[in-house]
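Quick sanity check, Mismatch repair endonuclease PMS2:
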Amino acid sequence: HHRSENGGSSEPAGAIKAIDKHSVHQICSGQVVLTLATAVKELVENSIDAGATNVDVRLKECGAELVEVSDNGKGVEEANFEGLTLKHHTSKLRDFSDLIHVETFGFRGEALSSLCALSDLNVVTCHESSQVGTKLVFDQKGHLVQQSPHPRQQGTTVSLQQLFYTLPVRHKEFQRNIKKEYNKMIHVLQSYCIISTGVRITCSNQNGQGKRSTVLSTSGSQSMRDNIGAVFGPKQLQSLLPFKQVSPTENIIEEYGLKDADLPKQLFTITGFVSQGDHGVGRSATDRQFFFINNRPCDPLKVTKLVNEVYHMYNRHQYPFVALNIAVASECVDVNVTPDKRQIFLQEEKLLLAILKTSLINMYEAGVNKINATPASDLCQVVSSNKSMPEPGEAMEPIIQSSKSSLNLASLKAAFSSHHSSNSGSKSNSGPTQKTLQSFFKGSVKTPTSNPSVKSPLKPVKDLAKCSPVGKSVLDGFRYGRTSCGDTDLEKDRAVSSFVSTTEAPDRQCSVPELSSPEPAIVRPSVKDETFEEASDNSETVPGDPELQTEPCTSKEDGSESPDAKRARKENPHFPTEHKSKAFLNCSEGSSSSIVDAPVCLQRRTMPLQFSLQELEGRIRRIQDQQKQKASEELCYRRFRAKINPGENQSAEEELKKEISKDMFKEMEIIGQFNLGFIITKLNSDIFMIDQHATDEKYNFEMLQQHTVLQGQKLIVPQKLHLTAVSENVLLENIEIFRKNGFEFLVDEEAQVMERVKLVSLPTSKNWTFGPADIEELIFMLSDSPGVMCRPSRVRQMFASRACRKSVMIGTALSVSEMKKLVVHMGEIEHPWNCPHGRPTMRHLANLDIISQD
């Protein structure tokens, strides 16, 4: 068919042919250089590989117009001009075996050729053996098209104009997200600044015709510590601990399933710095974490995760600053996994994790025990001597009373982390303390057990070990009245407990105001589906098993059928047949009462009647059939399928989002209030249940979020913030958003970087105060989404607790108009499906069509 059309000569359409060279080059280049960060990284690596001690990165319009990297390295020899930008031409490897021992940053020989394909690339270079420099211009295929003498000192300058302009879609995306790209690039550059000792790296940017501003600069010091100071300022240095490596302890070797005998000695050497564990010295985000393997910046995911997990045992709410260099024999590493060489395969990775975990715990324990008045072991005595396990809520009291004289935060922390510390004699992860605390946490033992070493019936001891009580700082548990276990899989569905019972309340005021029993609310795992269920005051009404959750409401509807439900059924449009025919007869008798010719009248009376009766029957039957059909169609497609059960919160919300639009809330009919806590509404034949407190709270919260302008409190002396250049720029660009959040700044454009911004006024609100940590968090959020109105998390918390206090409480009787108002409000807010503390606001209860069929 194809052949005849094309004159019989061409190949069939499906023939396999080689892609032409130009397309191959573009396809591959676009996979090697993905972002501005990769482009700059490749050029900086080339400079450092060439032995430069000065590397200068200059950008125009954040890199959209121009990226230029110049250095004072060896320069390029004339013999290498041609091969400089050809695909897979490199001076770093002779054959494949060199890959194993590669010591340089670059070695694949594809960066420059890829950059040629994606931008206009030219190079000015002067080799150490040359008298005068040379300017080289390359085309997109990487061929040298122009070569002319050009004065410069020894070294090389590579400049890229219009990055990505050869890939139109990516180019557009690149320009749209240029701020994000730029911030990502700075982060990558920071990692090279930290690790490249003896190299001065500077980076500057110029927007439009404005003046060039320096964004980063290091002084070429020989120590990693000085480099960190140069990039992040002296304040960051004060809170750092040098990393001290120790060999892994037995219980950690066991945890990672390593065999003690087979462990290679001295395989890894780890150096660097991490934040101290004290609260307030960490960061609000993971924005300053740098990992290196053999001095090469990379992203080892498991290592990152581990460092943050251990840090969270000591400082629950923050993330550490991390700069760690892992030295390992080059034959145990494969860096050639992805083109950007950020993903790395390591032999003996588990051993590395074990060393890291032991060392970090050691470092932080030392810090904890320094301030500690009571030795950790004494406190353990106190805990374990308390032989009978008290009710979870009271568990703390005996401990506190028995050691009141010397109790402080650190000793509490030490008590909860004592099973980690090397000085607490017990080597296995589950010493007596551990188990007591564990049962304290799980709350799985309802009655006080007489033996403290009873293990929780839920999980084997190994899991308990993972579920370190410190995982969620226990003090938190007390502060927020939330006790839950830090175990990761339980964490995932840390289910808001079932909708009908009092749902989990991370904020104290969100829990049910009047608990009828004096005992505190206990979190008990229901062994059946591993989600937590909070016992509430109305435990009779609400069975513990989430499957039965809808019972109390639906049975009420069916059994003692409410008048509204009856009315709903009566309103069904079709009467049985007999009613209609009688009605028809009556009306026709009445109409023919006028006196006319008798026989005609008779005829009229009989004929149509017989006829109309059949027609009527037929009609009614048709209507009935149609209705049956409709009902069966309705049954085929049930709009709401999610059960009311903590495990299905996600899917229930998805469903509501899909099926209910904002204008439907106005049309809902209020049926009544159930249990003084829930509004039952009806929309067509669907019945919904709405939590009056959660709904009102969400509305109040969103109103506060949108309209509150926080009042500022002037500082006596403007405070220096010592922000990095990138952070300063983000702040300056979004200064309006900071104003709305109550932060005022004094900006001095002329000052040097890190000193341009001073804080003049801080937001305060009744008893909440905010500070530099909130500014840093805002900067972090804004660097991700510039120009979007956002609030620091503590401001959100404050609004959440205010909204909670303003809202209708559970237990308040509401009139129909009040209920109507709450329901209409739901249609006016952005996300009506759960309150700021995570409680669901509404759930689908039942569909009347399905019920009335039976």
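Posting the structure with no commentary besides this: The chain is about 40% helix and 15% strand.
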